[in-house]
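Support request, please re-run this one:
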Amino acid sequence: MALLDKWIALDIGAYSARFYDFSTQKQVVLKTIIAEKGSEVLGVSNQALAYLYKDLDTVQIQYPISHGRILHSIEPLIHEGLDQLHAYDSLLRPSVLVIIPSETTQRQREQWQQTCLNCGVRKVELISNLEVLQEENPCFLVHSGHSYTEIHICTYDKTIVSKTIFYAGIQIDEQIQKIVYMETGCFITKMDAAHLKEMASHAFKYKKNSLLMCYGFDERQNLHQVQIESSLLWPAFEMVSSQISLWVKHCFDSLPASLQEYFLVHGIEMSGGLADCYGTSQYIAQSISCPVLCTKRGQYDMIEALKGVKSA
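Re-run finished. Output below.
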């Protein structure tokens, strides 16, 4: 790597997009949401949130990433993140290191490459979740983000189990939307459901039954304040957490006894946004009687793991 190269790490998930400048160590976090009116981009991230409740007939709200795939142009989002890091201010164009799902196809890799090049970057390198998280010693990795969960079991240089399942944070959000409608008769947005999930998770962690609030639309598109007790949302957490833990147990049960004993002692490592959410790690620990190791900020695990990789 040339000494003058300016490298930015991109971790663009279905809910949040994180940008990290290796040289300045500055970080930017954006919501993965874009508001458009026809071909015009009205705003990204927090600017787009303002359109969730107005101009519903003319403004399109895009959630451009799902299951690690680009469903809609994310170029405005990348531009915004790089602009906030002042990545374009120097004479040298920035290069980007992009974290992608481990099972990304060649066609999808080319799409990520071209999307980033369209944003005026000098060079694009792709690195998978597994490449970021894998360790020299045997490791049992559960990376659970917003729209998918990866399960990897590695022994030294060999990956003996690798599985992607589509149970993660967004599935909890979808169940929350259904529960809120059944309880209140109001439709809430994906962003409001994600916000309720965070607040309910906090309540569950401290064994409280909190009254949660957001906004929702009735069947006539009138906006109302919605109130719901956190305990009513627990089935959404339980359904997704139990499914993930069943897959993790299935992978664990497929291991030879010697490896099972190793992980019973050393534990399973859980990363990603859902590691911050009450329920999943607790279900996994209970189903296998095995410690589950989470950082205090699981949603930042990927960026944290990359720090120092391309520092000047």
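The first helix runs from residue 46 to 49. Residues 202 and 213 are 14 Å apart (CA to CA).
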